[in-house]
Amino acid sequence: QVHLVESGGGLVQAGGSLSLSCVASGRTFSRYAMGWFRQAPGKDRQFVAAITWSGTNTYYADSVKGRFAISRDNAKNTMYLQMNSLKPEDTAVYLCATDRNVYSGTHSSPFEYDSWGQGTLVTVSS
To answer: Which residue from 28, 56, 71, 81 has the highest number of Cβ atoms inside 10 Å of its Cβ?
Structure first.
């Protein structure tokens, strides 16, 4: 089992930027693909971005492509999400997750992930 802790959320005006972090412990971080999801009140969990175990390949939801950037530092057991040009519709709790299988590709379905953090709230005002 792995323990994930997100940080970096907050309140920002539309057009602004935020950088989220996800620190992992309890599992060999570098072997697993990772993902960011978000969940707004009353809505289903939505895929945001994913990154392979090596960091070589990334995958984004169309709604964030060109605005968000996912990255990881395996030496620090940390994954990041740089969010630029934020919009009010980006408001949600952002959660990080680890893939079920080692050395897998990127996945957009939350069912492919078996460990989740508690989330960090991002609020974008108009």
So the answer is: 81
